[in-house]
Amino acid sequence: YSEKEIYGAYKLFFGTLFSESRLKIINTLRKGRKNVSEIVSDLKSNDRTIISHDLARLKLHGFVKSEIKGKYRYYELNNETITPLMDLIEKHMSKYCIHILRNMKGERNNE
Question: Which class is 3-110 in CATH?
Answer without folding.
Answer: mainly alpha
